[in-house]
Amino acid sequence: MPVPVASSSTATSGAPLLMVAAAVLFGTTGTAQALGPAGMDPLSVGAVRQASGGLILAAVGLIVWWRREGVRTPRLTPKLGWVVLGGAAIMSFQATFFAGTLANGVAVGTVTALGSSPLFAGLFEWLSGSRPTGRWLAATAVAVVGLVLLSGAIGAARSLDPVGLALSMAAGASYAAYAVCAATLLRRGVRPVISTASILGVSGLIAAAILPSTDLGWLAEPRGVAMAAWLGPVTVVAAYLLMGTALRTLTAASAVTLGLAEPITAAGLGVIVLGETLSGGQWLGLATVLVGVLIAGTGGRRTPSAPPPPPARPTLA
């Protein structure tokens, strides 16, 4: 997955732990949904998560801005199209990610979304005129092999829902689209904290507008309230703040490596907590996708800073 680089090449002793903590929180989103009330609409789950977490994080960003800049408001009007597109991409990620994990399980859905995201990011850059690197092509080939194994096409104990697999891939594409929007805003001079707050704020507003048209009956149940309280404040607000603090000093290579705690957490929770079953071939597929992500993210080449992503993979994720 695309990961922002740090401003310093030397990580402080606590930064790796903060990054791992953020990745672990991102990795719990699918399991939190699975433990919620039965019959929930994935769109409503994603909307609740983004409306609560996105708007809270936007408020945090505004507070930071006002403390640094006073009453002067940020001028985002010339870049508003990128902000709106980024917010829409995040909301698209929410709905498709949760639908994909609901169809094929947390382990498969999360790794498919996270594993495909860097590939789509490279594809979007290619379409915009940036020649793909040999490392990206190698990572793509490895990850595609992993996704084929993961899909159950070869020796799987059970076949996967192809629609669910497509939704997980769509989640990866949505996250990649967000990354392109965020990077564009940064190149045009928008500060990382303002870029992140504005995009997440827009996604929160989109989610709030969608909420009345979704089935929110699950919020009347205690498990539903507990799930919502975890998904928004914890897997969006707390995770982003942890990641943002860590990325002040972590290198890109270190951040990508530590960020692999997210799909590992998701897969582990899926098997241990939810009792999901994977064949030997699908376990190999999971490992292969992670290798592809690692190849894509550890090139050792620095790129301009970008703000941290949302779950799930869902952050992913």
Question: Topology, please?
Answer:
Blueprint: H1 15-26, H2 29-34, H3 42-69, H4 80-104, H5 106-127, H6 134-150, H7 162-187, H8 192-210, H9 222-231, H10 233-246, H11 252-259, H12 261-272, H13 280-297
Helix pairs in contact: 1-10, 1-11, 1-12, 3-4, 3-8, 3-10, 4-5, 4-7, 4-8, 5-6, 5-7, 5-12, 5-13, 6-13, 9-10
Characterize the structure shown.
With 317 residues, this protein is mainly α. The chain has one domain (15-297). The chain is 68% helix and 0% strand. Helix 3 packs across helix 10 (233-246) and helix 4 runs antiparallel to helix 5 (106-127). The protein is globular and about 60 Å long. The model is unreliable at 1-11 and 300-317 (pLDDT under 50).
Q: What descriptors fit this protein?
A:
317 residues, mainly alpha, 13 helices, disordered N terminus
